[in-house]
Amino acid sequence: MLKSLFKKKEEKIYAPINGKIVKLEDVPDPVFSQKMMGEGMAIQPEEGKVLSPVDGKIVQLMDSKHAIGIEDNHGNEILIHIGLETVELKGEGFQPHIQVGDTVSVGQLLMEFDVAHIEANAKSSVTPIVITNSGTSGKSFTFTSEQQATAGETVIIEAK
Question: Tens digits of per-residue pLDDT, 1-16?
Answer without folding.
Answer: 444 445 556 799 999 9
